[in-house]
Design brief:
By secondary structure, the protein is an all-alpha fold. About 20% of the residues lie in helices and about 0% in strands. The chain is built from one helix and no strands.
């Protein structure tokens, strides 16, 4: 199953929603409105997909 949002490709560290599933409210397990994701999940996804570039590249 392909996730609805790209960040849903990884598990959410805030609500523990598994990869491919939308985030939920930890207190009651209900899905967040509008299939949104927790900020921490978006940040974690961005960090895992970010290209690693060297701090200094030799132009030669």
């Amino acid at each position: 199953m392909r996730p609805h949002r790209p960040e849903q490709a990884i598990r959410c560290n805030w609500c523990n929603a598994p990869a491919g599933e939308p985030c939920t409210v930890p207190a009651n397990g209900r899905r967040l409105p509008g299939s949104t994701s927790h900020t921490t999940r978006k940040t974690d996804w961005a960090m895992t997909t970010q290209k690693q570039t060297p701090a200094h590249q030799d132009p030669t």
